[in-house]
Structure prediction request, 651 residues.
Amino acid sequence: MRKLPLIAVLILSIHCYAQENAASRWADSVFKTLSRDEQIAQLMVVRLSEKTATGYLYYDSLVMELVKKYNVGGVCLFQGGPVLQARTINKLQAAAKTPILMCIDGEWGLGMRYDSILPLPRQMMLGAMQDPRIMYQYGKIVGNQCKRAGIQVNYAPVMDVNNNPDNPVINDRSFGEDKYKVAEYGIQYMKGMQDVGVMACAKHFPGHGDVSVDSHKDLPVINKTRGQLDSLELYPFREIFKAGVGSVMIAHLSIPSIDNTPNKPTSISYKNVTELMRNELGYQGLTFTDALGMQGVNKFYPNGAASVESLVAGNDMLCLPNDIPQAIERIKLAIDSGRLSWAAIEAHCRKVLLAKYQYGLSKWQPVSIENLAADLNSNVPFMRKLVAEEALTVLKKTDKHFFPLKAGEKDVVYVSVGAGSDNAFARRMRADYNADVIWFDFKQDDSKNAATVASIKKQYKKVVIGIHSYSRTPANNFNISKAAVDLVTQLQKKTHAITFVFGNPYAIRNWCDAKNLVACYEDDSIVHNVAIDLLQGKIAAKGKLPVTVCPKFKYGTGISYTALAPIDPSRLSLDANKLTFIDAIAEDAIAKGAAPGAAVLVAKDGKIAYYKTYGSFSYDKAEPVTTESIYDMASVTKICATTISVMKLYD
Prediction:
C-alpha cells in the first residue's frame, strides 16, 4: 500500500525535472542567438498605443521597427478593438526573431482596455463580497480572456491596501482597507489566472495605497516606519509571494524608511528591490518596473537614466521606457563603467526567456479572429451579475416599506441625480412602479431645491434616489456639486426616501445620515437591475463595506438578510408548474385536519422561488399564518436538522 504513493511522487519528480530541463534547453538555445544589444532589448516592454488629449495614438509601425531592429522582449497592449489587436499581435509575433511577451494592464479584464468588450467589476466592488471563491472564478475568466487574445501577462491583481480615502490613483482599484481581505482575494485572483496559463503580476510593491499624489504626475512620499509597512502594506505582498505569483510590479514611491536617498523611487532602489524584496522577503520571480515614462521616476531620472537604475536595483523587465535606442546605449555605458555587468544582463535575459517558455511562447500559435469578441464577452455578463448580487451593500434600513418595495406600489417617484438620460434603473422604476422620474444634474444650482423637495413631499409617498455618473476619483468631491448634495440631503430628511449610490463608495460620506442607504459600487445596467431586484426583495443582501466611508459606516458595515420576495422560478432552473402542486398538497392537508396551517418556502442558491402561507396557527382559526409568522421548532428540530444535513451531504 505504501509503494503507490512513492511511485507517484517519483513520476511527478521526473516530470517536473523534464519540464525544467526542456525550459532551460529552450532558453539556452534562444539566448545563444541573441546579440548583446538584443539581450538588453529582451528586458524591455514597449507601448502599442496611447491615449492623448486629442484621441488615441497607435504606434504599430514604430513597434514593428523596434521588434525587427532591436528584438524587444515585450509589448504592452492598451486601446483598440479585439480583432485589430489580434491582427497586430499576429503580425508582430510573426516578424519577431524571439517570441514577444504580450502584456496588458487589465485589472478588471480586457474590457478595461479593449472597445466592444464588457468590463468586469473593479476590485473595490469585489472586496464587498464575502465569498473569496468567486474571486477564483473571476481570475479564470480574466485569464481565459487573455489566453484567447494572445496575451501572456496581465498586470493584476492590485495588492495595495487602500487606507487613504483621498488616494488619487489606487482608490477603487484596491480590494479595500483590510490587509487580510486584500491578500486573500488577490491570491484567489492570481490563482484563477495562472491556473489557465496566464502570468499574474502583483502590484504596486511595496504598497501604493496610502498616497495623496498620483505617481503618473509626481513622486509620492510615504512617511511610515518599517514596522508600520511590515504590519500593513507589505502583508499582502508577503502572502502572494508565498502563494506563487508569477511576477510583481514595482511602484514609483519615495519611502525614506526603505531608502532615504532624496527623490529615489522604490522602482529603482536597490534597497527596495534587492535587499527588501529579494533578500528579506525571498521573492525570486519576475519583476516589472511601473511605467518608466511616469513622472514619479522620469522627473528625477530622465533620458534613459531610469532604465539604468532599474537594472542596478535588480529588476528584470523595464516597462515602457520613453526611448528604446537611448536606453540601450545608456545601459551599455553603465556596463562599461562597471555599474552593471553583462553577467547580470544575461541572468535577467534568461529569466525572461524561461517565463516565455513557461507561458507557451515556445509553441506560439496565431490568434484566431473568428468569434473573438463573442468569446471574450462570453462569461462577463454572468460574472457581473453574480458580483452585483453578492456585493450590493445595505448600509441603513429604517423604513420597512422599502424592504421590500414590491412591484406595483403607487405614489413612487425616482429622483435621478447625475444621469442625463434614462438608464436601466430609471426604466425599471417606470416599468415596475409607473414612477415619475425627476432629473437633477451636477450643473444645476440650488435655487429650486426647496421648491423641488416640497413638491415631491406633497405628491409622493415613497422617494427612490439614485446617485449616478460621478467621478471615480475623490478630487472635487467626485465632481458631485454642492447643490446635488443638498438636494439629496433634504429629500432624505423630509421625505420617505431610500438612496442608491452607484459608484465609488467613498462618495457615501456625503450622506451618512440617510435613513435608508445602499452602496452599489458600479453604475451599469446589470447593477441597476440587480439594485431593483434588491429593492423588491427578490435577492438577499450580502455585501459589506470594503472601506470606511465615515464614522457611522466603517469597514465591514452591511445589513444582511435573506431574499424577501420570490423571483421567477425559471431563473433558478425550477419548473413553475410543479411548484403549483404545493397549493393542492397544503390545502388538502388543512381540509383533512392533518395540520391547521403551514408556511412553505422553496429556495435555491440563496434566492426564493416560492413563498406562501396557508390556514391558521391553531384549529380554532383565531390567528392566520403569514410570512411574518415565527414557529417554535420544538421536537421537529430532529427531523429538520437531520433532513437538511443529509441534503447538504448529498449536494
User: Anything to note?
Assistant: Residues 392-535 form a domain with the Rossmann fold fold (CATH 3.40.50.1700).
